[in-house]
């Protein structure tokens, strides 16, 4: 028997009406925020949300405020029909799909300013605009949908920490849940931007995961942090990637570390392969 397609709301009044229906009988609600171009990683978040809550809302909104003028907002993949087919198959209850004028109406003048994990000298070093845009749009999504829980992938690890901190600091009443990164068979983290990779680049891209795994192995064996990171960085650059950063950080605070004693540790990497910027991370 074919599954029923999720409801679709595109205006705030429509969203409120739909949410009233979903919340009947005191149902718990999960939110999975996305920018569309859905892949198996997103669907795994939907399925996790279904296990934890009664109803699942998926937002699809390509947020212009987190893209710098030099970045790929216009080219970011938009695959609406495929996205809805996947969400229908997964059994999502509602899709919140506002346009930019709904999210940022004329005269919009308020931003959420982020510190703490947003100023860890990782993504923020290369994309200083990014976390302010993310925090503002996620803050709006949380207040619009008012979910009990919200689900984010660990691939964007610093983002997960920023959103968790924001929800706690502003008392938004949302429990933020991080989910393990879903990977292709060769270890490449699933990402909407992987479609940008040429065949040759796609074959090269898993070097990020291999370098992190090897570095983690060296650290667990007692190797010096700086030496282990240097070895991983050399592996990545030798494969032809332009490295933005490859760092070991405390996985709770994102503070810099000097040894395994400063843990728990997380390895985080960002590099450009051709025109595509890839990020990834693993626990040590």
What does this molecule look like?
The protein has a 6-stranded parallel sheet, with helices on both faces. It has a 3-stranded antiparallel sheet with strand order 7-8-9, with helices on one face. The chain has 2 domains: 173 residues, 3-Layer(aba) Sandwich (Rossmann fold), CATH 3.40.50; 92 residues, Pantoate-beta-alanine ligase, C-terminal domain (Pantoate--beta-alanine Ligase, Chain: A,domain 2, 2-Layer Sandwich). The N and C termini lie far apart (44 Å). Helix 9 runs antiparallel to helix 10. The protein has 284 residues and is of the alpha/beta class.
What layout of secondary structure does this protein have?
Layout: E1 7-9, H1 12-22, E2 29-34, H2 40-52, E3 55-60, H3 80-90, E4 94-96, H4 100-103, H5 123-126, H6 130-145, E5 149-153, H7 157-169, E6 175-179, H8 199-204, H9 207-220, H10 225-238, E7 242-250, E8 265-273, E9 276-283
Parallel strand pairs: 1-4, 2-3, 2-5, 3-4, 5-6
Antiparallel strand pairs: 7-8, 8-9
Task: Return the CATH class of the largest domain.
Answer: Alpha Beta
Q: Count of helical segments?
A: 10
What is the CATH H-level superfamily of the largest domain? HUPs
Poorly predicted tracts of residues: none
Q: In what range is the share of β-strand residues?
A: 15-25%
- Number of DSSP E strands: 9
Helix content: 25-40%
Task: Give a quick set of tags describing it.
alpha/beta, 3-stranded antiparallel beta sheet, 37% helix, 9 strands, 10 helices, Pantoate--beta-alanine Ligase, Chain: A,domain 2, 6-stranded parallel beta sheet, Rossmann fold, 19% strand, 2 domains, 284 residues
């Amino acid at each position: 028997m074919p599954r029923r397609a999720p409801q679709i709301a595109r205006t705030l009044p429509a969203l409120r009406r739909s949410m009233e229906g979903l919340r009947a009988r005191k149902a718990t609600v999960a939110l999975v925020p996305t920018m569309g171009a859905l892949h198996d990683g997103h669907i795994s978040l939907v399925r996790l949300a279904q296990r934890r809550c009664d109803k699942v809302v998926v937002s699809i909104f390509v947020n212009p405020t987190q893209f710098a003028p030099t970045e790929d907002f216009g080219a970011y993949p938009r695959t609406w029909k495929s996205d809805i087919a996947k969400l229908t198959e997964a059994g999502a209850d509602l899709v919140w799909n506002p346009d930019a004028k709904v999210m940022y109406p004329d005269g919009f003048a308020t931003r959420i300013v982020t510190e703490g994990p947003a100023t860890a000298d990782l993504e923020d070093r290369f994309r200083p605009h990014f976390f302010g845009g993310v925090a503002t749009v996620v803050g709006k999504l949380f207040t619009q949908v008012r979910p009990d829980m919200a689900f984010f992938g660990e691939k964007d690890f610093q983002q997960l920490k920023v959103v968790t901190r924001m929800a706690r600091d502003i008392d938004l009443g949302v429990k933020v849940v991080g989910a393990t990164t879903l990977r292709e068979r060769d270890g490449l983290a699933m990402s909407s931007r992987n479609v940008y990779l040429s065949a040759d680049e796609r074959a090269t891209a898993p070097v990020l995961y291999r370098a992190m795994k090897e570095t983690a192995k060296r650290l667990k064996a007692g190797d010096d942090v700086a030496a282990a990171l240097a070895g991983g960085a050399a592996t990545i650059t030798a494969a032809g990637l332009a490295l933005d950063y490859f760092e070991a950080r405390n996985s709770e605070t994102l503070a810099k570390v000097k040894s395994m004693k400063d843990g728990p540790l997380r390895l985080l990497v960002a590099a450009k392969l051709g025109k595509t910027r890839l990020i990834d991370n693993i626990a040590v």
